Amino acid sequence: MRLLTLAGLTALLSFSASSIASPWIESDDPLLRASIEALFNQGVIKQPVNSYPLMWQGIARDLHQLDISTLPIQSLFAYQHVKQALANAQQQSSSGIRVNYNNAPLLQQSFGSRDQQKSGINSYGSITGNRVSAKVSVNYADEALDDKYTNNQGSYLAVLVADWSISAEQISHWWGPSNDNALLLSNNAAPMKGIRVNRANTHYDGPHFFSFIGNWQLTGILAKQKPTLSNNDEGDFWAMRFASTPLPGLEIAFSTSGSEFLTSTYSAPNTLEPKTKKQQLTSLDAKYSTHLSGFPIGFYFEVMGKNDSGFAPSNPFYTLGVESFFGNDKQLIKTYVEYTNTQKECLPATDCHYGNDTLINTSAGYNHNDRLIGSSTPLNSQSAVLGAYYHTMNGYAGFTKLSWFEGNEISQTSYADKVKRIQLELGYQQALFEGLFKVSGAVYQDTFNNDSNTDTALKTSWEYRF
Predict the structure, then answer these.
(1) Can you list the residues of the chain whose pLDDT is less than 50?
(2) What gap in Å lies between CA 58 and CA 305, rounded to an integer?
(3) Cis amide prior to 207 (ω within 30 degrees)
(4) What would the DSSP string read from start to end of 15-55?
(5) Cα–Cα distance measured from residue 57 to residue 385, given in angstroms and rounded to the nearest whole number
(6) 194 - beta bridge partners?
């Protein structure tokens, strides 16, 4: 009976598993991420899973070593989902086209596909070999937030050298366990053109006295950053992340980043002349997955701030969250609660900004094309999200989110106006005309002082692969 169930699940999930031929999992599929996290919670996957793009090699190794007869029924759907996504990723070639419409592209960007334009058409083709993989994306966007009508976002050329992947790319990244608000590096801003070096096989293989590190991941990025749309200034951006699983169910990570535009001013000793120095940001995050009274549950956090005192961030922003999973052989449901706080005392006031004082906007030092590279909510704000995703064996899926925000105006660049927002968002997807159709709607109320305004938003897309 279990073999029949698995066979049926394989057929039904073959379309809904959204990974295409690729050496890694991109930061655009929260449903696949939910299945991976559910298997990590059960101890099936033992590799670090909070660094996206997420390499397939370590996950494939864990799935291959699994004795499926020991898998509890609550993990069966997640196992089949990830296994089918891996099979799709191992295809030698894939291509497709996607059309989308979004009448409110300024709404908060969480983990998932980026549609920061009024409407658009995305076309792509990819090939995957033993050592070389490539993807070419040609995209058209109407009323895009970055003012680009055509772009190649999503493209890459990757080469596997021993246990390392080296790629020239323009793809989004998501570092940390957060579902809606990664503080150091997220997909909130358009992807930068750059080079990434990534450990492809995260399995620990070394001297026994270092085995306490567990399976580990190391990523380095060097990219070109364009902080604002108002000028053509461009400079180097770099970031590094180390993640490991030292204990079953525990993943910890250290990340840091900097750029030519991330600077601060200070007064030199015995002089009134201000000096400028390069500023570095640091992030620490962790996630612990366990069971309470038989229910799978995960606790996670991220703290991020300026690197003024060495390893730990100073006066940090933070995100806290808890998530749980409910599944069987027919469906998987992921629920989570997440809170983010980017408020802090600023003495002087410019200390709240991550930026270069010579730019028009002092916060622009950690922007790319006028969007924050990390937090999807503006600086000096706080927000909370109660969310749930579900995915069924027949390919139907959906989500719901209830969110609250209080802080600066949602422009991410203004520090004058304060706003409170309450938002309810619902989403749904299913197969349609041999493609994948997605639709989501949101209703939100903004309050400025004593004035309030209620508005709605609609987002939809259809993707066909061949």
Answers:
(1) 1-18, 349, 357-358, 360-362, 412-415
(2) 31
(3) no
(4) HH----S-SEE-TT-HHHHHHHHHHHHTTS--S---EESEE
(5) 32
(6) 169, 223
Supply 64's token pair: 């291959």
Rounded distance, CA 464 to CA 100, Å? 12
In a domain, 462, yes or no: no
pLDDT score, position 265:
67
- Give residue 313's Cα distance to chain centre: 21
Phi (first) and psi of residue 422, to 5 degrees = -120, 130
Asked if residue 139 belongs to a domain, the reply is yes
Beta bridge partners of 303: 284, 318
- Identify whether 444 is part of a domain: no
Q: Which of 178, 218, 229 is nearest to 364 (CA)?
A: 229
The answer to whether 424 touches 385, Cβ cutoff 8 Å, is: no
Q: Which phi and psi angles does 94 have, rounded to 5°?
A: -160, 150
What CA–CA distances, in Å, run from 19 to 86, 117, 354? Answer: 7, 23, 35
> How long, in residues, is the chain?
466
What does the pLDDT read at residue 360? 45
pLDDT digits (tens, 9 = 90+) for 214-268: 999 999 999 999 998 888 889 999 999 999 999 999 999 999 999 998 877 666 6
Owning domain of residue 285: 2-321+347-377
Residue 187 DSSP SS3: coil
Per DSSP, the three-state class of 305 is strand
Determine the pLDDT at residue 242.
97
Residue 100 belongs to a domain: yes
The pLDDT tens digits for 113-161 are 988 999 999 999 999 988 999 999 999 999 998 888 999 999 999 999 9
Select from 247, 384, 390, 251 the least CA-distant residue to 325.
Answer: 390
DSSP state at residue 212: G
**For residue 457, what are the β-bridge partners?**
442
CATH number, domain with residue 102: 2.40.160.130
Among 69, 53, 75, smallest CA distance to 327 is for 75
Residue with tokens 């085995």: 211
Helix or strand run (H / E) with residue 87: helix 76-89
User: In the chain, how many domains are there?
Assistant: 1
Full-model pTM: 0.91
